[in-house]
Structures are given as structure tokens and as C-alpha cells.
Amino acid sequence: MKARVLAYYLPQFHPVPENDKFWGPGFTEWTNVAKAKPLFRGHYQPRIPADLGFYDLRLPEVREQQAQLAREAGIEGFCYWHYWFGNGRQLLQRPFNEVLASGKPDFPFCLAWANHDWSTKSWQRGKGKVDSSVMIEKQLYPGDEDYIHHFNYVLPAFRDHRYITVDGKPLFLIFDTYNFGDVSHFIELWRDLAVKNGLEGVYFVAIANSTTTVQRGKDGTIERVLPDLASSERVYRDILDLGFDGLNPFGKPRAEMLYKGKYRRLVQLTLRKYLPQLPAVRMDYPKVMKNFFSPEDVWENVYPTIMPQWDRSPRSGNYDGVFVNATPKNFKAHVEQALELLRDKAPQHRILFLRAWNEWGEGNYMEPDEKYGHGFIDALREAITE
Description:
Layout: E1 4-9, H1 17-23, H2 29-35, H3 60-73, E2 77-84, E3 90-91, H4 94-102, E4 109-113, H5 144-159, E5 165-166, E6 169-174, H6 183-196, E7 203-209, E8 214-216, E9 222-224, H7 233-240, E10 246-250, H8 252-260, H9 262-274, E11 282-284, H10 285-289, E12 305-306, H11 313-316, E13 322-324, H12 328-340, E14 351-354, E15 358-359, E16 364-365, H13 375-385
Parallel strand pairs: 1-2, 1-14, 2-4, 4-6, 6-7, 7-10, 11-13, 12-14
Antiparallel strand pairs: 2-3, 5-6, 8-9, 15-16
Helix pairs in contact: 3-13, 5-6, 8-9, 12-13
């Protein structure tokens, strides 16, 4: 059985005017990564890249090296985060635009629309919650004129021979389905435009947590609900009913609540918003990941996520949990568990989304570092080839 592993790819590793303005000249994700400090004894921070170093994604040589490492891991292609804020406004588009224009690397790709506000929040230790959110860009949905402009922008990518397809249609993912009230109309409009432009359509996949504390109605209203840890059926059906072809669930919140206890975990997250000086919560990776997948992840059009490691402390300090014992060996066992979910699916639908290839600020990456080298790359290749 061959699995189709698609890796989320962050194009943040190059300076942009918006980051320069807010954080200072030359800021990239590496700035947070390099200054990270251990939060407890034995905490693996800072994380230092090995083979590729502190790279700049404006360099085509770096992009070629990344593709070669991904091939080594058995990854089918990259899923580039794509930032379109409405009215033609974009951010971080340069690396993908250069990949598209140059034809290099000759490595498959697709796009995932990161349709969320571009903001930042800071916390002052010992002084309670300080919300200093600064909105750099707000996600807008201006209507058909912008939706058509957006489609025409991605059309050259859809037509590229490298673009990843499912059932003959270019694959396009949408990050936030809850706050995109017009999403069903958007999907139908793009499908119509795709056919008019000689494509078979667009294969839309929604990204969502498998367990959530919110529920969206078809009219776009959102209400708070208690998370259901036994089943993800309601979450999945609510989203698929909006018109999506498939769904990519993220099981981390579910797994953490089953590991720590539903209410205990929710309380932990709430307390750290107001008391950021509290110590970091440690999560034992192999124990947490036992509950990462929902029963409904075996559905034909549900494409599970695999996650090698997680530590957002470079970005968020003590707020999020730090996964310990996230080793290549334990990651391999996690991938093997995920592969069992694919056995009865059609070959085109044996898809696993890898989160992520290079989210260094989240401690969520596959690229070689000084501690594990190619360990995670080797683990993935071994799991999907054995």
C-alpha cells in the first residue's frame, strides 16, 4: 500500500516589509527560533538546524535542497501555505511565486489558503493577561470580484504539471471554515470557473480540529459546544455539508484532552492566558499520540494528519504544552498507526497530511536539526515503505 504524504510548508523564512515594520529589520521565523530558551531541565531548546542552516527561502538552492530531503523521506509533495487577505492583498508569496515561475524544484505541490487574520499577541510575565494584539492584516471576504481575482491568480499553479490532484482535480485546502460565512458559494464559484478554464473542477479540502468547542451552522452562525471526545462525526459532517470534497483533521486538541482530562486541559489553557508565569505543561508524545486519531478518520474522504513533534515555546512561551519524548522512533510508531487508517481507501485517497515540514517556531518540523539529524526523515521513509 502506497501512502500519499503531503507536507505543509511555511514560506515565512525571508524578510518582508510587514514583519520589518512590526518586529524590526530582517525579522523571520529564525529570530524566535534562535532566541528560545529551555523552560525546564532537559527541555530541548534552542533547536538548531543542521544541513540547511538558518536558510533564506529567496535562495533557489535552498528550495532544491528541501525538495531533495522531502524525496528522501518519501513525501509526495509540499502543501504551501498561501496568504490571500482579500482585495488582492497577499503576504509571503515570493517563495512559491518563484517556484512556479522557475519550474524548480521539479517537485509536486498544492496550496493551502491560510485564511486567518495576521496578528500577534504578547504576554507580560507576572502581570496577568496583556492583549497587545496588533493587526497587520485582517482577513476579508469582499465577494465575487475578489473571489474571481483570487482564482485567476492561482490558475497558473493549477495548470502546472507539478500541481497535486485528487480524482483528476487540483487540490486546494482552506484553513478556516468557521469564520468564512460565504465558503459554500466560494466553492461553487471556483468549481464553475475551473470547468470554464478547462479543468475538471477543484478538489476542496477543509482543515479542522477533530474535536472543537465551536459548531458552525450552514447559515454561518457559530455557537460554543462541549467537545465530544468519543466521536468526530458531527464536526466532520457539519464541515463536509458545506460543500467540501474532503477534510483534513488535526487531532492534537483531542489527544491532549484525552491525555490530561477534558476539563483539566481546558482549564490549563485558560489559566495560562491570565497567569503566563505558570510552568509549562509537559506532554509525553507517545502517550498523547495514542489518541490522536478519531474513529471517523477511516472515512474515504477524511485525510488524517501526522505530526512529528511539537513545541511552540519559541512563539508562545509557557502557554502551549511542550511535547517531550518526540523522537524519530516514536514518530515512526505514530505514522504506522496512521497508515492503518488508509488500508480500505482508494489509492487516490490514501493521503496523509504531514504537519509540518518546516514550522520551526512550533517545534513542528522534519528538516534535520543538530540533535536528530535525518532521524525523522528516515523514520517516515521506513514507516511508509515497510
